[in-house]
Amino acid sequence: MTHFIVNPASGGGLRAVPLINAFMERTGAPYLLKYTEGPSDAKRLARESALSGAALIVAVGGDGTVQEVLSGFMEYRERNPECAAALGILPAGSGNDAYCSIKGGKKLNSRFEERVNDCLKSVFSGDNRVIDVIKAGGEYMLNIGSAGIDAEIVKTAVRLKKVFGRFSYIAATVIKSITYKAGVMKILADGADLNAGGGKTLLAAACNGKYYGGGFVISPAARPDDGLITLCHIDGMPNIKVLALFPRVLRAVHVKMKEVHFINCRTVEIELPENGLLNLDGNLFERSSVVKFEIMPGALKVAV
Length: 304
Fold this sequence. Notes:
Oligomer: single chain
Distance between the termini: 17 Å
Structural class: alpha+beta
Number of strands: 19
Largest sheet: 10 strands, mixed
Order of helices and strands: EHEHEHEHHEEEHHEEEEEEEHEEEEE
């Protein structure tokens, strides 16, 4: 049976439900709709779905919903490795970057109804893909986990979403580019200290995919099935230069800047300051400790 975990608070979660019903009724396949009621609820529902023997668990929402569903599912899988269920993604959020990273940058149909139907056909085509997962501080993610200015951008974007909608990330990026101050951050890549000289870090992103923030190409060479984390480490720079950085990230030409570095590794450790922010696929976590990112090669069968 297929279980759909729907986030009603996402941009199109509830809008997708009638389309899901119509599609599934046409197929005649058994399915169950589950609705989240608050933060972390998708994790619980995903664990319950895996425990009940669901063959396919589909996250219906944005990147944050996918991250929660993945974490609940992987928590169950690590205790029950015989579980053969697959994870599906029905992109119904404002960014949908994890989906785009897995699909290799395929653009989503701008017409919502057509997008949902296209994605449902793809999810049930049987053409599943095996990809890597990153484990991070007790959570799991498919796409990108980061600390520094972009975690602050996500926090600001959440506050601005009611005003700016899908442009909230861009508005938050402008605000934080002007106000954010880079600090010293201890970062280890496979045990090597990247800031041994005491340099400041603007951003550190452990990447399994390319895209975040609604289409920013933070790590153009990252692949979700290469068994590696691609660490994007950006040195501190003057705010006027930060303002020029993010337009370059949109076009993936920031890779030419001398402050931008990429390292392929299997583990990344980031020492967060007191009450530090961690961004995992669009979900924010407050941590005051070292967070370790570990690649789990080929850990997930995904239907997209």
